[in-house]
Amino acid sequence: MNKVHSSLSKLELLAVYFSYAIRYLYPLVLIPYYGRVLGSSGYGVVLAGLSLSSALWLLVNFGFSTIGGRDIVHTEVASERDTIFRDQFTARLLLSVPGAIVGGIAVCRSDIIANVPLAGFFVVAGGLLSAFNIGWYFTSTGRPRTNVLIEVMGLLLSLALIFTFIRKPADVDRAFPVIFTSSMIQTLVAYWLVRKEYTGFIAPMRAAVGLIKRSATIFIYSGTAVLVLDASTYILSLLAAAPEVSAFGLSERLVGAALSIMAPAAQILAPKVMYLVTRNPDRANLLARRTFAVFFVGAVAGVILTRLLSEWLIPLVFGPELGHAVPVLNIMIFILPLTVCTRVLGIYFLIPRKLERQLAWSGVISAVVNLMVAIPLASHWGATGMVYARILAEGSLLVMLIFGIWKAGLFREILGINEGFSLPARFGRWLE
């Protein structure tokens, strides 16, 4: 098992991004297929179900992955990692009970999902299963490429099953069993690969409850806000027709695919920043600033290109039935730069310094803003109204994070003012 090293391996980062390329191509292949085979309404059903599954995953995960990754990078012996692993599994198992109850109620409330036979069962089961993903364990023990390969295998398997079993609009009832089967195989492979690294699955109840308490603040930040945001498509399915759901869901998927480009960097860089922040904070800050600059420039470029090309590219690639998603996408794309800011500030600056309490109110306020404006706006303007609610929520999250950073006195660290480098010297360090 490899330890996380303090130096950045450019070759390692490049390898992860190369492997992740297929993950970014996945929605670009799958969305047009769903749109043309299932139609706008059928694809709306799939998007509503996936939104609910994602929300259940976040609920049961409860911030455990962040806490587990941070704990493991500071361990030295296998027995410590074994204890962390068992605590994590047991805590997830405990939260699966309320997760299943919430999921069952949500399925019954959504006519779009409930009207498809067995869809509700597989939507809930798939969300709970996703919470037991151990990608956090691979990355925090220095094996991000293993995690990426497992995910790529799962995506390829999912595509193969979908192309085989979903061939016409009436096959919409097969979508969720197929997705669940792929996820189950991916999970089994991951656990089999680390089977010699843990002595069991169940930890003492006190330890699991203690982990839940320690993760509560992280959940309030990353869970509360993101939970509400990820559930937006499901919430819209309660307020609007399936075509509106598909327009919003398509836009959300494309923006999500763009944001997922940050994921492999986080797998490599976040554990390194967590490791460096107590040993070499100047290096940790420099790494975080570079990450922000690269992704923010990319987000602005994404906004410009989307506004220029979406009107003819979306109908061409995803089919004329989804052409009504263009106006929605042209608004939602502005979430990109906002989310880059919030993710970098949270993941690379505040969480490594164990300032989760500074993050808690940010998540709560963002979620409250989203819920307060989503229902009236979506009821009146459908998908467009839900997009405006998302932008307002993300904006409020950014404002609260900036306030938390100011309160914690981190502005000088973030800007590198205390590091003693002149501007030419700081620019030169970018070329290292």
From TrEMBL:
Keyword Cell membrane: yes
Stored InterPro entries: Poly_Biosynth_Transport, Polysacc_synth
Keywords: Cell membrane, Membrane, Transmembrane, Transmembrane helix
Residues spanning the membrane: 12-35, 41-60, 89-106, 112-136, 148-166, 178-194, 215-242, 254-275, 287-309, 329-351, 358-381, 387-406
Membrane-topology annotation of the record: Multi-pass membrane protein
Compartments where located: Cell membrane
PANTHER family per the UniProt record, alphabetical: LIPOPOLYSACCHARIDE BIOSYNTHESIS PROTEIN WZXC (PTHR30250:SF10), PST FAMILY PREDICTED COLANIC ACID TRANSPORTER (PTHR30250)
Family: Belongs to the polysaccharide synthase family.
Name this polypeptide is given: Oligosaccharide flippase family protein
Species assigned in the record: Paraburkholderia guartelaensis
